[in-house]
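Can you make up a polypeptide sequence alongside its tokenized fold?
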Amino acid sequence: MLEYIFPANIRDNVGLECCKSNLEIITAIVNINLLIFLFGLIVGRGFHGAVIPGCPETFQSSGQNSRDRRESSQDHHQKVRQVREGDVVALPSGVADWFYNNGDSPLVLVQLLDTSNAANQLDQDFRKFFLAGNPQQELQSQRSSYQSGQHEGESRRHKQERYRNIFGGFDERLLAEAFNVDTKLARRMKNENDNRGIIVRVQHELQVVSPQQSREEEEREREHQRRPGGRGNGLEETFCNARLKHNINNPERADVFNPHAGRLTTVNSLNLPILRYLQLSAQRGVLYPNALMSPNWNINAHSICYITRGSGRIQIVGDNGQAVFDGQVREGQVITAPQNFAAVKKAGSQGLEWVSFKTNDNAQISQLAGRISVIRAIPEDVLANAFQISREDARRLKNNREEVSVFSSSQQSQFGRD
């Protein structure tokens, strides 16, 4: 169990944190499914944003529109939900989320943590991967309580770890290229000199789009929730006649294609149903010379990557914001990215090709940069307060990359350019 209270003191070693209204919990992802119950000490209320990979940014602010989103004053982000005391929020593993208290009294969040759930393919520790902020004290306190039963040497090792957000483990030049920004802004994303912790005070009032729901809409939503779920059509495959192969090398079958960067092709239980029984899937990746795959994490699977051709650089960042791997890879090598560990791939001068085997029949990834990324789906004001940057810089982080998944080599951020 974890309890968050949105009074500005922190009680160590009991997972209890306190703050007043107009505060925001930094965006983060976790390695388990969560049920979150909200209640106020008086009447608590606020906003909740959950960034679900692949969902469109359907909320749009008023402002001057432009074909180039970098020049537009409009903000686009995924749905922001109004929450109040008594709400129960379900959060799937690997989905980035944030809370904001805009009420006049503290808002309390109590979380049920189920580390033994099948969604968690890591160890039995609760892990939180922060996208922003500098969660040093909070995570050390939480880890000390969760790992009280560990061996003394292992516990000492955890105490000596330095915890940062996941961008803190990436090379700032790779970040600059991924987001197509200068290295100065990429450096700010690491929040290395930010001592605010995981709950931050918002400058002024958070500006997000969140329309009021009418009574008619509430009634329709309740009616929809009462309907029974979908059922199978009775024509499911059997093992005797199941299709056992699917080609992912044909460029015509690519799920993502960028003529300047490369392509991605996935086989899972949707196009090869027998994988549902095997609980496995695979992805074929091709990056052209000097191209980049968007920094991302696997939501519900581990990824075992075998390099089939070429060479390049791979970085993998763990939940403490440290790079657990940063090195050159070449044909014939294998690298594993555990569930929720963020990774980025950059091709060398000869390109980079690989196949990733994933431990889920419908493995999903969530991207950190690009047109369908977590950052793109978060309101500008949330980013500005989380990274302590201007709204203009937040807009650049969101909109400077229009590509999806595979990126062409950036012209603006050629390694080390400020």
